[in-house]
Amino acid sequence: MIDLIYFGVTNFKWSLGQSLCSKYETDSILYSIEQFVNTESPWLLLWDHILGPPSEKELAVLISEGPDIFHSGLLLGMGELPKSINYVLPNWMLTLNPTTKRKSISWKISPRACLLRKNVLKTIKFRKEYKSPEYTFIDFGYRCIINGAVIQNIPDLIPDNFINKQLVIKHDEILFIQSNFSTKWYLWYLFRNLLVGNYGLNQIIRYYFYIIVVESISNNSGSSK
Q1: How many other C-beta atoms can be found within 10 angstroms of the C-beta atom of residue 66?
Q2: Beta strands 43-48 and 2-7: pairing type?
Q3: pLDDT tens digit string along 76-125?
């Protein structure tokens, strides 16, 4: 019914489906997910053992409902990520974070407590270029919700004493904009960060020429077809 990928221990007891222990690293998590995409269970749970055992009763309630993805990302510090989206979509309704204390729509998924339908994994793939699992799932959640998936933040999925903050990783912030928005918005993001002093001029020049190289490769490959 529900397969499980868990982090932190090697003897996690699980009776609802197959299970696999993974390192909390992007490559390891994505490899583990690939092992479960085509198994019989329609659902996949990712879970950090530090949160305690997941409630099978709560999980049974969730899978009987309509959404495609459930998570507790806002309680796990994901609400502040990605900072970069504030430069390109400051007025988007889903840029703002709802309260962490009630069920709500939020694409800011944490891999530490995430229940998802496997059908979503067959439609939208994870990007492998991010350095952190948090940004990997933030990117995945963003692309899922703009493509029509229903994603809910569920505070009752985990204990309420695990509120924490996530680190802002510049590489992943830039990659989020470069991957999901046009070159115009990418350059605007770089310019704004230069103005406020987040990046130095040398960094901006390096990122600027990076996007030129990427576009050149893309255009050349397109013209050779």
Answers
A1: 6
A2: parallel
A3: 999 989 999 999 998 899 998 888 888 999 999 999 999 999 999 999 99
Question: What is the residue-wise DSSP string for the chain?
Answer: -EEEEEES-S-----SS-EEEE-SSHHHHHHHHHHHTTSS-SEEEEEEGGG-S--HHHHHHHHTSS-SEEE-TTTTTGGG--TTHHHH-TT-GGGS---TTS-EE-----TTEEEEEHHHHHHSPPPS--SSHHHHHHHHHHHHHHTT--EEE-GGGS-TT--------HHHHHHHHHHHS-HHHHHHHHHHHHHTTSS-HHHHHHHHHHHHHHHHHHHHHHHT-
CA-CA distance, 96 to 90, in Å (whole number)? 8
| Nearest Cα residue to 179 out of 171, 96, 191, 110 | 171
Entry pTM: 0.88
pLDDT digits (tens, 9 = 90+) for 159-173: 866 657 788 888 899
Written as six digits, the tokens of 23 are 């390192």
Interacting residues of 217 by C-beta distance below 8 A, sequence separation 6+: none
